[in-house]
Amino acid sequence: MYEPRLETMRPEKLRELQLERLRKMSRYAVENVPMYKRRFKEAKLDPSGIRTLEDAAKIPFTVKTDLRDHYPYGILAVPIDKVVRIHASSGTTGKPTVVSYTRNDLETWARLMARTFAAAGAGPGDIVQNAYGYGLFTGGLGFHYGAERVGAAVIPSATGNTKRQLMLMKDMRTTVLCSTPSYAMYLGEAALGEGYKPKSDFKLKAGLFGAEPWSEEARARIQEVLGLRAHDCYGMSELYGPGVAVECANQKGLHIWTDEFLVETIDPETGEVLEPGKKGEMVFTMLTREAMPLLRYRTRDLAIIDHEECSCGRHHPRIMRIQGRSDDMLIIGGVNVFPSQVEHVLMNVPQIGDQYQIIVDRDLLDKLSVRAEVAQSFPFDKEAERASLAKSLESDLQALLTVHAKVELVPHGALQRSEGKAKRVIDLRKG
Length: 431
Ligand code: DLL
Hints:
Layout lengths: L3 H4 L3 H22 L1 H9 L21 H6 L13 E7 L7 E6 H17 L7 E4 L7 H12 L3 E3 L6 H10 L4 E4 L1 H13 L4 H4 L4 E5 L5 H11 L2 E8 L4 E7 L6 E3 L4 E6 L13 E7 L10 E7 L1 E2 L11 E2 L10 E3 L2 E3 L1 H9 L4 E11 L3 E9 L8 H19 L3 E6 L14 E3 L4
Parallel strand pairs: 3-4, 3-5, 5-6, 6-7, 17-20, 18-19
Antiparallel strand pairs: 1-2, 7-8, 8-9, 9-14, 10-11, 11-12, 13-14, 15-16, 17-18
Helix pairs in contact: 2-3, 5-6, 8-10, 11-12
This protein binds 5'-O-[hydroxy(phenylacetyl)phosphoryl]adenosine.
């Protein structure tokens, strides 16, 4: 552990710390950010009215459009000369979401990232290859500073240039790989294609993978090919970046650093707070953020949060894998379909490769199809085998999704590989 006192704090102590910080943060936000001053006034709420953690539910939500509406600096609680870093998350349309940090914010973020590396067993002597994007994206610098903080050596290899990544991995004797899970899969595939024997040529022991959804089956594949322990890590630009939650060596859910974040799960339709253990949208309050306070920020990410104790000694509750985003959910003829369900089915079938696309279209009715690459060893030329594989996948998908999905198999290598976040869903109904 990097900060054993905070990482093993008992749940009741954590709650005390959270309450103290929540009260302080509410007052700070109201006094320094006009948007929060207005919101509290509209809700007829004074920060002094927050006396218990449950009172957080009285605070109005903050949503992504609030950040866009106050582009670029409207939510700042400090003068611009206290800001020392600015990141942004790329919007698919229009202006990006801008996130600003004071020196103390960067310090907090680096500490949380150091905990992230420590949870994966990384420290002095480790060689960390950081294949997240450096730039406006928070992945690159977030992992970079965390690795340095625990005393590991960082190779800032950034995304892309896959052959060079593999050469570095072997020659520099990389022990910890940081990348999106889809890029980790691609690195594994490319390593085999280039004639490496990953388990003996590489010295990898752990991977820190996140920034996009992935399944248990994908984890099993990455671990098998690269010979490492794959840790899931979660974060988002608005909440510093990566470093919000990470899996310990037990790999049974991601510990959320609740001394820094108050997390609630809500019903995404009604906004009501759900009981612990129920699947819902995660809502985060940043408890010590200086530059850009965020109270009850709706993430749109759906998850179950588990409060059971973990044998690793950390009492921080765990996200039992992100189960999709409320805005990623596809509605096919009235039925809700999550891309993660499709991945779950595909990755369970050894004849299927790592790459796939989900295509949604409409003529009279919604049509769902899945284009999947076969594994390298699969005899793609044999039509009968292809047809039978497609048929069996269609029936597995039907059983899980309860809607029909047409399966199109394509040869190994036919689909584009991703170096950052994979784009798996093509919805032709939009636009
Ligand atoms: O993806 C920050 C990050 C970088 C996290 C590197 C982990 C590793 P954004 O670009 O703002 O920030 O995207 C945030 O990505 O709301 C989730 O929908 C998704 N996401 C992030 N981590 C995971 C994960 C970074 N482990 C959005 N599993 C979030 C599933 C994830 N989805």
